[in-house]
Design goal:
Layout lengths: L5 H15 L1 H14 L4 E4 L15 H6 L3 H17 L5 E4 L5 E9 L2 E11 L6 H14 L5 H9 L6 H31 L3 H13 L6 H7 L4 H12 L3 H16 L7 H8 L4 H12 L3 H12 L4
Antiparallel strand pairs: 1-4, 2-3, 3-4
Helix pairs in contact: 2-7, 2-11, 11-12
Length: 305
């Protein structure tokens, strides 16, 4: 196997950092719960199947992953999807008629990763298409129970194009948030970050839903409140209060991906103590009221008529 290029190695390390972030974990869970589809943040020149072992992996795809030749066919599809998704979301079909999609994630002008989902039919499958698929599987020399394969294939999710376009818009919104986070990580990497500040950021990420304050965080990282304030602002460009508020607003945005989540529920779950405080902070950070943000989010995610 060819060694990954330098850009691919940097992409892999960068993606690992993004995946460990609370923002990514929140969005990942919200996406899976809301759509029922798999999701993966994939680095450049990755050589693994993007959705293998995902909780929402298509059972048919899981069976095919056990065959080297089927695996190779899937990897070739992923490579084609990535090549065509350099500038915009792209969807392609595999040999079995299932669709996979990639949404590019950029930091500045640099392509750093792909958000991927799929393993769905965009039209109802029939016996004629399965016969063609079965013939291809047999030609691979795959040793599987064809009865199980047929059952799994016909159990695959079927979405109409409007539904699927809405899901891809959801991923595109997610990609914008990851781009902003990626820019922040790039700045941190360029200027370096003291271990106490890194620990403070991790503490905020894990406990932002609680009534957590500056003095408590400063004490947790063994710094005086005064010195922590100066150090934290120098490292992040924000005061502790503003940084915590932004983390909570991003949490609210991820929760609101679920169309059944009320704004008030999301606000309190993210750590805001009152709706008046939440409305004021959200408007300041997002540049619009929570109500308008939700209306625009629902409009972007609504199926195209």
């Amino acid at each position: 196997m060819t060694a990954p290029s330098e850009s691919a190695q940097r992409s892999r390390e960068f993606v690992d950092k993004l995946k460990r972030s609370q923002i990514y974990r929140d969005y990942e869970q919200a996406f899976r719960d809301t759509t029922g589809l798999p999701i993966n943040l994939r680095s450049l020149e990755a050589f693994d199947l993007p959705h293998h072992h995902d909780p929402n992996e298509n059972p048919f795809c899981s069976l095919m992953a056990k065959s080297n030749k089927s695996c190779a066919a899937c990897l070739q599809l992923q490579r084609r999807v990535e090549e065509e998704a350099g500038l915009k979301p792209t969807t392609l079909k595999c040999f079995a008629g299932l669709c996979d999609s990639s949404v590019p994630v950029r930091v500045g002008d640099n392509l750093v990763a792909f958000l991927q989902t799929g393993q769905v039919f965009l039209e109802k499958p029939d016996s004629k298409l399965f016969a063609k698929t079965a013939k291809q599987i047999i030609s691979f020399g795959t040793e599987v129970d064809m009865k199980r394969v047929e059952e799994a294939w016909f159990q695959s999710r079927v979405l109409d194009r409007r539904q699927y376009d809405s899901i891809l818009r959801l991923l595109s919104i997610f990609a914008q948030h990851l781009s902003a986070l990626g820019q922040e990580l790039a700045i941190q990497a360029e200027h370096g970050e003291a271990p106490p500040i890194a620990r403070a950021r991790a503490l905020i990420a894990s406990r932002h839903g609680e009534d957590i304050g500056l003095e408590e965080v400063a004490k947790a990282v063994n710094m005086s409140s005064f010195y922590f304030c100066k150090s934290f602002k120098k490292a992040t460009g924000m005061t502790f209060t503003n940084y915590l508020a932004r983390v909570r607003v991003e949490k609210v945005k991820s929760l609101l991906i679920n169309p059944h989540k009320r704004v008030s529920e999301a606000a309190f779950e993210a750590g805001f103590q009152s709706l008046s405080q939440f409305n004021r902070v959200f408007r300041r950070i997002a540049g619009q009221s929570p109500k308008i943000y939700c209306e625009q989010l629902r409009k972007r995610l609504a199926p195209v008529r």
